[in-house]
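REQUEST FORM: STRUCTURE PREDICTION
Request ID: SP-0412
Submitted by: Lab K.M.
Chain count: 1
Length (residues): 63
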Amino acid sequence: MAKPVLTGICSSCGLKSITHLYHGSNSQKMELCKECYDQYVAKEMLQYWKDHIAEEERRAGTS
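STATUS: Completed
RESULT:
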């Protein structure tokens, strides 16, 4: 099933463009342009792996 295409104003940079929905830190959906969406996803992935590595180090006792 294809995602619906949204046209709106980016919640982050304020530009009017095609937007994607993203769940923000307060669990509310934000409309983001492609560039801002990619940045939010990259930050989230980076934090996930930092947390994962820290947990593995804690379990192994190497931190």
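NOTES: The two ends are 45 Å apart (CA to CA).
Reviewed by: T.R.
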